[in-house]
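User: Can you fold this complex?
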Amino acid sequence: MKLAKSLSRLGTESAFKILAEAKNLEKKGKEIIHLGLGQPDFKTPKHVVDSTIKALKDGHHGYVLPNGIIECRQAVSRKIESLYNAKIDPERIIIMPGGKPTMFYAISLFGEPGSEIIYPDPGFPIYESMINYTGAKAVPLNLLEKKDFTLDVDKILSLINEKTRLIIINNPSNPMGSVTDKKVIDKLAEGLKKFPQVAILSDEIYDRLILDDKKMPTFFNYPELYSRLIVLNGWSKTYSMTGWRLGWSVWPEKFVDSVIRFCVNNHSCVNAAIQFGGITALDGPEDSLKIMVEKFIARRDLIHKGLNNLKGVECSKPLGAFYAFPNVKGTGMNGSEFAKKCLHEAGVAIVPGTAFGKFATDHVRFSFAASRENIKKALIKIEEMLS
Ligand code: PLP
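Assistant: Here's the predicted assembly.
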């Protein structure tokens, strides 16, 4: 049998592979502390679960519109207005089965041989994977440790040429937990005005997980870019709903029909009852989110200090999301060797930097979406491993 050549260009997300490896070790009796996968370790708020169950009991079990039920799109529009003071027509909002499909569709809209797409490296691995899959040239934007992994506007603009169709920004970032300030994003938005042929995909899935008192530097601040701005977001991280597969995105009006066509061809529509749960999450109280952020701040402080106390490990302070991304070069190992040793010797599952691009060979990612107890235990085990 002959498979399509394009398949060989499709990458993956190694965090899932590491999870499988860790589960395998657990089956053999080894105790593993999971700091690999990027998902909150909190329960979905009860009022969200209850309203989803009610929706099912009320008979919301059938097909619905491919772009999402209007009530859900209106709830997203209300939320964007209340958070960012931006008015977005619900017809420009598409409800997706998670955050990832927005990436897939946005990159598919622009990627083809001969085109170029700029993406962050280190960055979420699916950007590069999807760009390669479409046959477009994947142009990495190397984010530097010495700049705390924040965006460098001049560098981004210098990568744009006549073949550039799309630029992908992720702020706050995975895997670094860095947050680029609004001032810098203002400058970037200004600079992008000179390139009206370039669309922007702003992945803001961690927008509510800013771990200090900074305001979220959202691209919704720039209405002048709306005609080529795609914003990716969803419920996964904010409401601890990773397994529900529920996301939303905002598109320029002129792209909406094409994206709906992708939805119809691929997933038809998003689970109806879950969209009702999504509305409750957006409109309901945010106590759970507040508690989660407080806990992430405490864990961030713990892991940041703990990692920097390890011999040969240096870690900049994570300001968003729930990831620490230390440099482990000083231990004499590269990121892959360190991560492997952590899993097999210390029993701590983490992800090597190479899972996020070519420039992070000396780094590893710790997800601190785990209890303080487990983080403390993991740090002790790694300290023992290093000594
Ligand atoms: N964007 C970034 C930067 C992520 O880290 C993730 C998940 O880890 C996603 C998007 C995908 O989110 P979802 O699980 O909702 O598909």
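The pocket of pyridoxal-5'-phosphate is lined by residues 38, 98-100, 124, 170, 174, 203, 205, 234, 236, 242, 247 (CB under 6 Å). The mean pLDDT is 97.
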